[in-house]
Design brief:
Length: 269
Amino acid sequence: MSSLSIFCMGYKKRVWATLLFLVSWIVGFGNGVAGQREGFLLIMDAPTQPASTWAWELLRNSRRMETVIGVLQASFSLPRPLTFRFGEGEGPVYDPQRVEITIPYPFIADIAHLLSEHPAPTAVHSEQTDTLDVVEWVVYHELAHAFVDLYNLPVLGREEDAADALATLLAIELVEDGGRMALTAADLLARVAANAKNTPNASFWNEHTVDQQRFSQVVCWVYGSDTTTFAPLANSGTIPHQRAQRCPDAFSTMAQGWWRLLDRYIKPA
Ligand SMILES: [Zn+2]
């Protein structure tokens, strides 16, 4: 069975995963901890600082991360439990010792702040939805680091580029309108790169060598994944004409590379 056919089930899985997670929540596994004790775990620490409360409430009210974890749970087998912790520690980062991805609430507030100053050009949603879109893309980016560690995957080239690639691929394959999610994240990367000194809580951005190249690579993959829907990216000159022609190949090479690595870990549909 090809990986792609499994992932074409992504939207339906997303609905089912949300329902299953909500049922587990309602029957008492809640308080921020995912019901299952294996696979993908979700922990949302109660905020201790007023600045974190906004992000915590955004996550809780949207149930977005419960959906993401539910879809991942339905899609991938893990050799060890992997925890996604939202809280007030350092990050976003994957810690191989703890097998834990940490996403800080202040980082989420930073994203919202950056979006409020300058909404994404692709924005068709509210600022809160765009914030959650960027957070979800970053979750997938950190997940790539976790996969490299947990599955002992070879990485050719920079691991950061490979992580951006998987983040973009999972957004496109698992999320309805996920190409736009990746573009919103890419646009934010570009603006941070252009204005790094003025970015609050810059540690994530610094550690992840934010540069224009990352932005343009993500945009090229998204365009290459669907040249009809994303034709305006080429027509407007966001992607130079010559490069745009190579983007479909760039996307399929990237996608096939990741699917080949992940194939044996993908759960049957
Ligand atoms: Zn990274």
